[in-house]
Amino acid sequence: MKVSSRLVFWSALALLVLGLPMLLTSDYHMRLANLVGINIIIVLGLNFVLGYAGLLSFAQVGFFLIGAYAGGILTVDYGLSFWLALPLAGLSAGFGAWIVGIPTLRLRGHYFAFATFAFAEIVRLIALNWTEFTHGASGIIGIPSPSLLWFEINTDTSFYYLVLAFVVLGIVVAGRIEKSSVGRALFAIREGELAAESMGIMTARMKTQAFILSAVYAGVAGALYGPLNSVISPDAFSFDVSVVVLVALLLGGSGSIVGAVVGTALVTLLPEWLRVLQDYYMVVYGAGIVLLMVFLPSGIVGAVHTMLDRYRLRDLPEPAVKQEVGR
Amino acid sequence: MLQLLFNGVAIGCIYALIAFGFVLIYNAVGAVNFAQGDLLMVGSYLGVLGVVGLGWPLLPTTFLVLAGSALVGLAFQAFAYYPLRDKPTINVVISCLGAGIFLRNGIQALVGPEPYTMAPFMPIEVVNVYGVAIPSQSLAVIVITAVILAAQSWFFSFTSLGRMLRATANDKYAARLCGIPVKKMIALTFVVSTVLAGLAGFMLVPVFLASPNMGFGLIVKAWIGVIVGGFGSLPGAVVGGIMVGVLETFSAKFISSAYKDVITMGLLMIVLFVRPQGLFKGTVSEKV
What we know:
By secondary structure, chain A is mostly helical. Chain A is about 75% helix and about 0% strand.
């Protein structure tokens, strides 16, 4: 793309995103747009771990819970302002990641996936059972809306711009990290951990950093989710959420920021479009995940890249010898 | 006390059977089968179909569970694993997860979310052993598990098919060079693993009820058993599974039943910290 056409594309996109509240007439659709935004932040976080470092993590829902509960407890029980509770929520989620990451990220393979899974369950059980601190099964009720100077952010439309600001911030930070030495180190770990280690990359430390980063994203998303919904309870943070964010990233394209955004939007809106299926929606969803893995293993972004490459290289002669790959 | 121990060992046996299936598949294809609990659930429902639905006695129902599980295992690997055999492990794992969601919700769409139950395998509720009252189903689970484990140990050590399966798990490439049909062996591994899960599911129904989402809580415990025992080790999976069952039962009794899962997962974290290779494995190493 030339500079001018690129500029046109981005300004059109910016206009669309900023003007979305005018296109969506009902509160319900506005709420969905907000949920898409919050999910994008969680998936962008997951992208550091799964997309860049190639580690399977089920912990995102646990950090999301920690963020939501930290935000809820601090604002409701301790009367803190949203703007103070939000960074604290991110920090507490990051701290959780540090605790889980230290024993498990030294190890390879599936230990990490298991530990993240167990962690998410532990966190949910504690939120359910430690009634004095977390309000137990009934959850935290009446989480106040944030206010900016004299303006109270209490409608879905105003909340949309708050979420949008954090999504943009998340994308910018992720983009910077992708191009930094940390991002390159993580890519190296994904492609071959042993090789990365022998090149002098401190793999355990890099992986822990990526994991903490992913937790901070999910924690911030949680702190946003609380005031949006005004109620949080443990059953909103089941294992299904972890599956949804994993599927979102893999559908969009693991390792790509655009993929994370596109995939999340699709997966969050899909249940709305497939309402006709009713009880069979989850059956189709399960089968869809299998089909996705079989036919779109590198996601939408990966498939588009393959197509573009094929288009660009259309005039080149076919390679004389086709290399046999795999066993 | 002794009664508690028996119950713990019985539930541990169920974990052990699931854990065993996990390790079989992990060793063969290098991926963790996240649908193992849902395959178990299918076994439970096959048992309910036989005993409650058709009114069959236990023995024909057992054959129904065996045959049905074998078919499900075969279909499972054909759709969820085989097309992905050359793709990264993460894709296989997610695909298994999707297949699990499919099974869980498929059963729910077919028969509804209400749980089913059936009578214990033995006509009496409680067996008296030296003055200790033991639930008969716990005893049945322990005995049947012992028989299954003895049978598999014979199968993997002394039959040529079992040896071929082990060779495949050990090194696919070398196994193929020796003329072992690797593709069939992997399919068979899935079948064996599904049948073990299906039998565990069948035995579980009188104690735990059959419901579409039953598998989830069970596989978490089975995994913890796998790691405590040592990833990849079959005896480790069995011992680890039983340990988790006993620990869970005792902590529910003496500490808090609300936190029993937190305590078992705490055990997982401690093992990962102190002895990450598990109890039954030498070192954690990696093929380069």
